[in-house]
Amino acid sequence: MPDIRDPEPIFESRPLWRFLHPDFSFSKRQIGLLLLLVGAAGFVLLLLLDVIGMGHEGGYGPAQRAGLGFFAAVGLLGLSLIPLGESPA
Amino acid sequence: MKRVHQVLMGLAAVGLLFNVVVYGLYAANLIQFPFDYDQGEGFELVDTVMFSQFKLPYLNTEQYPFYSSNYPPVYHIIAAPFVPLFGAQYWYGRLLSFLSTLVTAGAIAYAVYRAQPHRGIALFAGLAFLSSNTVYHIGPLFRQHIFMVMFETLAVVVLAYAFPRRSWRGLLLGAILLIAAGYTKQLAAITAASILVWMFVRQPRRAFLWGLGFAAGGALIFVLLNVASSGEWWRQAIVANTGKIDPLQVFDLFKLWWHLHGFLIILAVIYVLYETYIGRWSLYTIWFLAAAGLGGAASGTWGGGDSYFSTSIAALCLLSGIAAARFVNQGWTFTPRWSKPIERFLQNQRVHAVVLIVIPLLYLGYARATLKMPTDGPVFGPLAQILGVNATYEGRFFDSATYDVGGYAHIGHMVTPQDTAAGWQIVDLMRQTEGLVLSEEAGFVLAAGRQVITNPTQLKNLETAGLFKGTELIEMLENREFGLLVMRGQLYPSEVLRAMGTHYDWTDTILMNGFEYQIWYPKSATRSRDGLPHTQP
């Protein structure tokens, strides 16, 4: 009886190993999630900049506002990619 | 309808070719000019001369002659073999830069044709790059920026095919081209980052391995340069090059970028949306987004400006070219089920007939938006009247971009024999001067056969980074050891300018290329406007 086991089952069961597979490629859903995470984290960090005392002056400056806009756009782009599922990014 | 399409394509070709002819004339005119046209060219020539003598230009600016370069070496090394043959001249550096824009345009046309075969559109994409006002400005200058754009474009075009095909030769060539871009100008880091991001999305493991090899190669050169320059490479070319960004300048330059390139930006954005939601991201898309976003943001630094958009313009021409060719060829692929109605819409014959009219009109509109031309002379004078364009510079040159935007280069007009004569007038003043001379542009000093002392913009960079003391230079100014100062933009650090203002007098102004060159003499032996020296207390 020949051995008909999946030759690389580990890549399917564990996301980290799958990620390191030579043929792994990000899907639109995965990139969407990644961008949503980056956008949300960046947006929150910029909002908190003054609270944690890293802002040079009070209020939101033009660079900070541009940054907030950028991260919001990144997050929204990520959100829009999630429904596109497993098609390659 | 095909006939109308052909006529419009012909008109678009005429429009783009006209812009390229003007670019060629401007380059031919500038290549013969023996002085700085753009401030900083002369210092790049000094770097080239130093490399030709096997010397590094990364030096301690606190010691006489207070000179250092802040640019990586590749462009100057390539130009260096010309120095022993022709001396310290501008023409070969300008010619190299001009030729590099032709190579970039060729690479863009090739990439468009390879992605979606359409000879006319591929040609338009290459011509569109040469037609851009930004490329026009800096293309024929003795500056390294546009040479970096050539290496970046070649690296991107090579890697876009080599990485998916796992061609190790292609990957190696791409890495070499990318390292060459980075060691031509530091701004190529944006292109390197976009390549790594794209590789990471495609195949993270291979991206990591390739990135490791690429970083090791780049780091090795970095360490060698730093050791050979006793750490000055790090101080002068890296630390001193980090300036603050002026948000208003960035906003204005983005507005201008849109105003000039909007017709093609529309096509490029359509292509980006297509790849994001229907196809898959190509390297060109990631490159375009990174170059436009990060390069555009960096344009707001002191010493930045519209030239920082030139990489994004290369990417824009490439991406819009592929989009245009796909529209004309009906070469789009719609795999997801939800996108099938778009496919049916584009395949509709009436819609395609409209597309065949709109695409050449976009290129025609772009040719008009980027129009710049002389408005005088037997050919261009009447032509300007026919086209209805009025001069925007000194009654003899039209530039479709406004000069009112901060960071937009105030260049592009042809130089005249009067400009050359004015340059030689400054050189004569230097030759008549006993002792040292200090100039904000190195060209006069080189022509006068004097030693080039300091690089004002680099001193300013160092001051901004908190690395400038200038004790010895200020002491020399206070002792009035310089017999003559030539100023154009007061680019020195504030303490140096204060010492100049205290111990020297501005006596004359010489006009060259529309800029005022101020002639300053030491107070003890100031010359009056009649040329006779007089003494001040």
Ends apart, CA distance between termini of chain B: 82 Å
Low-confidence stretches of chain A: 1-11
Radius of gyration of chain B: 25 Å
Question: What string, H for helix and E for strand, traces the elements of chain A in order?
Answer: HHHH
Strand content of chain A: under 5%
- Helix share bin of chain B: 55-70%
The overall pLDDT of chain B, averaged over residues, is: 94
The secondary structure category of chain A is mainly alpha
Helix content of chain A: 55-70%
Annotation field: number of helices of chain B? 23
The proportion of residues in beta strands of chain B is 5-15%
Distance between the termini of chain A: 40 Å
Helical/strand content category of chain B: alpha+beta
What summary fits the major beta sheet of chain A? none
Spans where pLDDT lies below 50 across 5 or more residues of chain B: 528-537
Largest chain interface and its two residue counts?
Answer: A-B, 19 and 15 residues
Structure write-up:
The complex is a heterodimer of chains A (89) and B (537). Chain A has 89 residues and is mainly α. Chain A has a domain at 25-84. Chain A contains 4 helices and no strands. Chain A starts with 8 loop residues before the first helix and ends in an 8-residue tail after the last helix. Helices cover 58% and strands 0% of the residues of chain A. With 537 residues, chain B is an alpha+beta fold. Chain B folds into 2 domains: 2-33 and 90-367, no CATH class; 417-534, no CATH class. Helices cover 62% and strands 7% of the residues of chain B. Chain B has 23 helices and 8 strands. Chain B has helices spanning 2-31, 41-52, 74-79, 82-86, 91-115, 119-131, 133-138, 145-165, 168-182, 189-202, 204-228, 232-238, 247-277, 283-298, 310-329, 340-347, 349-369, 380-387, 417-432, 442-447, 456-464, 471-478, 494-503, and strands spanning 372-374, 397-399, 436-439, 482-487, 504-512, 515-522, 526-527, 533-534. In chain B, the strands form 3 sheets. A 4-stranded mixed beta sheet of chain B has the order 3-4-6-5. The radius of gyration of chain B is 25 Å and the shape is globular. The chains are: A mainly alpha (89), B alpha+beta (537). Chain A binds chain B through residues 19-26, 31, 62-63, 66, 77, 80-81, 84, 87-89, and chain B through 200-206, 245, 247, 276-277, 280-281, 335-336.
